[in-house]
Amino acid sequence: MSDKEASKGKERAAEKGYRTPGLRGAQTSTLFRAVNPELFIKPNKPVMAFGLVTITLCVAYLGYMHAMKENDQQLYEAVDSQGERYMRRKTSKWD
Fold this sequence. Notes:
The protein is mostly helical. The chain is built from 3 helices and 2 strands; from the N terminus they run αααββ. It has helices spanning 2-15, 30-35, 45-71, and strands at 75-79, 85-89. It has a two-stranded antiparallel ribbon with strand order 1-2. The longest helix has 27 residues, at 45-71. The chain is rod-shaped and about 80 Å long.
């Protein structure tokens, strides 16, 4: 008897119009679904991991390029008349 009562409870819930949570159960137009697919498509973990690694490597490469440019400014250590050491950029006699 309990199985019959449980199945009746499920049917009553379906009759009341319970929907799935989120936008998957909402009435939307095809245009809205085409413009916002991320709201209706299940997340793909391997693609997300690949994207995260790719973005991280791109940012790391930009940081590396920035550090190399700073190191390649052709600086040298100069000593003034009082014995103080300081970094000076190489200049051309033509400048």
